[in-house]
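Workshop exercise sheet. Pairs work together: one partner reads the sequence aloud, the other fills in the structure field after running the prediction. Swap roles for the next sheet.
Pair: D.N. / O.F.
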Amino acid sequence: MPKPGVEPVRRKALIDAAIAAIGARGSLDVTMSDIASRAGVSSALAHHYFGAKEELLQATMRRILADLGGDSVKALRKAATPRERLSAIVNVNFSASQFRQEIIQAWLAFYVEAQKSQPLRRLLRVYARRLHANLMSGLVPLMPRAEAERMAEGIAAMIDGLYIRRALRDGLPNPASAAALVEDYVDAKLRRARPAPAND
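Structure field:
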């Protein structure tokens, strides 16, 4: 009988291995055998815990989303003003734990695969809705809602675009420079924004 607590440890190891394998390959064209080998377990055990490879990939995407969501919640709790909330979200997305090569490659691979995988597309929609809501929480107090909606879309597009450029090794070399570029955009837009109505 396996020791208590072994399954969560092995599942985490397999997800970590999946991220590493996707990062090394640059796509989701990885095998359960490769992932299992990286995790130090047999292919049979990997299938035991996750079934098909698609289930492991979905679990990997959920883990990436959960890590990003947890980091976002912590950062937002520390933000004292609406402007600080915007910086918190930008900085989380370009933190050292998120803006690293294997995670960036995984995001790009998931975006590509989501064109034909409904489960992955649903997970990416969860990410998009969460990012939009977090950005709106900082923008709505600063400008009319319609302008906030447009600016939230612009910030999200910049974040996604910088991830894609970096995944293609054509983007900014480090998280700080990527975050600074988005912050410049935020500052420029806020300088031009109308104040939010009192009841908005």
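Discussion prompt: Residues 46 and 67 are 22 Å apart (CA to CA). What would you look at next?
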